[in-house]
């Protein structure tokens, strides 16, 4: 997931020179929605064989309350989040975006604690703080809140809140339904809002002149960044909880940095390597569980 989303920054932004950002996102959401509907239909027909791990299909029916929850998740986690994330990414730097997104683990941990979905211990908080320190070491000098990209910074900040609400809000559904089902149906609701809102921008793009590289970016963003990575994200949320899963998002800027080194020829500095080490140490710290003392009566 971190590999896919880390590379997604550069891949998506490279297409913005040819395709309007919101039009690009609308087409990728529509493509991802079709993909999820196909996968869900195949999984449902396969039934028991597809439900071996519960990732693709679970037999529990969606209740009326579940459908309202999915509609709310589609509004917050797909419509509002995507409008803000893509709009922010097109207006501010990748460094700023990375630093702001790095706040999501702490926000999700606080939200999870408030709604009592999971307990967050001191080791988790220490790991989150260490990871954020590493993010600052990597991008801190390049990130400047309050510059000409202030509008983009604000949009990214609100996007983090939407993502936290989406992650926490979907967690109860994961106890009874598959990650593909919850993600797919919430994406359907979000796309039904997003595509009509951006239809004029979609129609304004001269798609016949879009290069193969930008079409490839659309394919990557739809199939891998939305289809595969979202499924991995919620499979992890179900297995280890939203607070612990969210810490792995701190690895995304690190992956983006190394991707730039490999494919764009950007230099790798000692400061960046040190920051990456702090992030990795922080993520590892959140995975440490206190040893339980077991008393044995003799």
Structural description of this entry:
- There is one protein chain.
- The protein has one domain (about 1-285).
- About 75% of the residues lie in helices and about 0% in strands.
- It has twelve helices and no strands.
- It has helices at about 1-15, 20-45, 65-90, 95-100, 105-115, 120-140, 150-170, 180-205, 210-240, 240-245, 250-265, 270-285.
- Helix 1 packs across helix 11.
- The longest helix has 29 residues, at about 210-240.
- The chain starts with a helix and ends in a 12-residue tail after the last helix.
- Mean pLDDT is about 80; it is low at about 290-298.
Secondary-structure map:
Layout: H1 2-15, H2 21-46, H3 64-91, H4 94-101, H5 104-114, H6 122-139, H7 150-170, H8 179-204, H9 212-240, H10 242-247, H11 251-264, H12 270-286
Helix pairs in contact: 1-9, 1-11, 2-8, 2-9, 3-7, 3-8, 4-6, 4-7, 5-7, 6-12
Number of domains: 1
- Report the structural category: mainly alpha
Subunit arrangement of the protein: single chain
Biggest sheet architecture: none
Number of beta strands: 0
Average residue-wise pLDDT? 78
Low-confidence stretches: 291-298
Beta-strand share of residues: under 5%
Helix content: over 70%
Task: Give the terminus-to-terminus CA distance.
Answer: 48 Å
Task: Provide a count of the helices.
Answer: 12
Which radius of gyration do the C-alpha atoms yield? 20 Å
Q: State the order of secondary-structure elements, H for helix, E for strand.
A: HHHHHHHHHHHH
Shape type: globular
């Amino acid at each position: 997931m971190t590999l896919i989303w880390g590379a997604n920054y550069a891949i998506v932004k490279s297409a913005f020179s040819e395709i309007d950002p919101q039009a690009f996102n609308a087409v990728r959401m529509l493509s991802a929605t079709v993909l999820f509907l196909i996968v869900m239909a195949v999984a449902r027909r396969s039934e028991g064989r597809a439900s071996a791990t519960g990732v693709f299909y679970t037999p529990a029916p969606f209740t009326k309350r579940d459908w309202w929850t999915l509609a709310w998740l589609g509004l917050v986690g797909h419509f509002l989040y995507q409008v803000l994330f893509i709009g922010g990414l097109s207006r501010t730097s990748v460094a700023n975006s990375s630093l702001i997104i790095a706040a999501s683990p702490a926000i999700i941990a606080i939200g999870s604690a408030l709604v009592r979905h999971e307990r967050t211990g001191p080791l988790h908080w220490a790991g989150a703080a260490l990871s954020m320190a590493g993010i600052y070491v990597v991008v801190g000098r390049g990130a400047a809140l309050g510059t000409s990209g202030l509008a983009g910074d604000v949009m990214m900040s609100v996007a983090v809140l939407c993502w936290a609400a989406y992650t926490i809000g979907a967690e109860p559904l994961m106890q009874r339904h598959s990650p593909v089902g919850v993600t797919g149906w919430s994406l359907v609701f979000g796309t039904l809002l997003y595509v009509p809102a951006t239809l004029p921008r979609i129609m304004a793009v001269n798609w016949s002149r879009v290069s193969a590289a930008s079409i490839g970016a659309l394919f990557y963003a739809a199939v891998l960044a939305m289809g595969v990575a979202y499924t991995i994200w919620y499979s992890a949320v179900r297995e280890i909880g939203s607070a612990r899963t969210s810490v792995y998002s701190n690895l995304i800027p690190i992956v983006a940095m190394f991707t730039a080194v490999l494919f764009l020829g950007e230099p790798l500095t000692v400061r960046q390597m040190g920051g990456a080490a702090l992030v990795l140490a922080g993520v590892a710290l959140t995975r440490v569980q206190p040893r339980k003392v077991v008393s044995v009566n003799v």
